[in-house]
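Good day; I would like, with your permission, to put a structural problem before you. What I wish to show you is a protein chain and, alongside it, a tokenised description of its three-dimensional fold. Please examine both parts with care and let me know of anything in them that strikes you as inconsistent. Thank you for your consideration; the sequence and its tokens are set out here:

***
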Amino acid sequence: MKKEAENLVKQLLQIIGENPDREGLVGTPERVVKMWSEIFRGYDENQRPKMAIFPNGKDGIVYDQMIIDEGSFYSHCEHHMVPFFGKYYFAYIPSKDGLIIGLSKVARLVGFHAAKLQIQERLVHDIVEDLWQALSVDAIEPLGMGLVMVGEHLCKTMRGVKMKGQMTTIKLKGVMLDKPEAKSEFLQRIPV
């Protein structure tokens, strides 16, 4: 399969008018296939990150206020196969009797879901649904959860309309959807 993929990259180089045998491109098909296995690892369920979750209060403090994390994401548009990337802002309010999540696991899960051909709307939805499920046990769910993703899409910037701009997607659950004050607190604390 790897050799077939390398041959396809050679064919693509020829289609765009390049010579895949010229000195600078000799190793390109192999490098591209190797890169694909890394940047599209989201298709391999064996690489799904393990969720480190803990009972709220395990470390001696029960926390029931908003917890906010921010980070970066990189993905590829499923319509043109070019990158889109940006920042994410994740927040949740744990239940006093529920679970809390290891903070690095949020970033790992964002990276896993982003490592596929995507649309930003599905990306924000899938991440929130996975995190909600991971933090829900024995009918105890988090009190609320929200994710805002702000991305620049190269399919808009470098082709087509050729204009720079950002797209913002938001997914809210629980009190962050139902209670305007919780939603407002989250959105006011992020620089969007």
User: Anything to note?
Assistant: The mean pLDDT is 96. DSSP finds seven helices and seven strands in the chain. The CA atoms of residues 64 and 96 lie 6 Å apart. The longest helix spans residues 120-134.
